[in-house]
Amino acid sequence: MIVEERIYRIRNGAMARFLKLVAEEALPLQQPALGNLIGYFTTEIGCLSQVVHWWAYADLEDRRLRRQRLAADPRWQAFIPRLSELIEQAENRILVPTAFSPLQQLPTEQAEPSARPASKE
After folding, report:
1. Which of 25, 56, 108, 117 makes an SS bond possible with 36, Cβ 3.0 to 4.6 Å?
2. Taking the chain (121 residues) in consecutive chunks of 10 residues, what is each chunk's mean pLDDT?
3. Residue 26: which of 89, 69, 91, 78 has the closest Cα?
4. How far is 62 from 117, CA to CA, in rounded Å?
5. Sheet hosting strand 87-95, strand order edge to edge
6. Contacts of 114 (CB under 8 A, 6+ apart)
7. ∠ at Cα 106 (44, 36), nearest 5°?
8. Is the dihedral of CA 34, 37, 42, 44 positive or negative?
């Protein structure tokens, strides 16, 4: 299993609008394709005006297939410019759990599986 961490710095004054768009429009499009949302957070201390969200995947190929599915959705293509205009900076990381991490496998409520069997990493 891997976790994709996405960190967005939101334009000043746009946080409420960004979160409303995510909750009402983005997640209904993302979750069927991407599946395993682990968490969605805002920052309170440190670098402010940031949103951090974590998505779990079986492996990099599972991530590639799921993100490809989302990118091909015409509804997502039409929507993404509205969300992107509120993002000032984006950062992306792939996190791999250690042998002693409490989170070792995909959450049990996994959305539709990818088009191939998940490998064991």
Report:
1. 56
2. 96 97 97 94 92 95 96 97 97 93 68 45 40
3. 78
4. 9
5. 36-42, 50-57, 2-10, 87-95
6. 58, 61, 62, 65, 66
7. 60
8. negative
Q: State the DSSP string of the chain.
A: -EEEEEEEEEPTT-HHHHHHHIIIIIHHHHHHHH-EEEEEEE-SSSS-SEEEEEEEESSHHHHHHHHHHHHH-HHHHHHHHHHHTTEEEEEEEEE---TT-S--S--SS--S--SSPPP--
The first and second tokens of residue 47, run together, are 């670098």
Euclidean distance between CA atoms 14 and 8, whole angstroms: 12
Q: Which two tokens stand for residue 116?
A: 């191939």
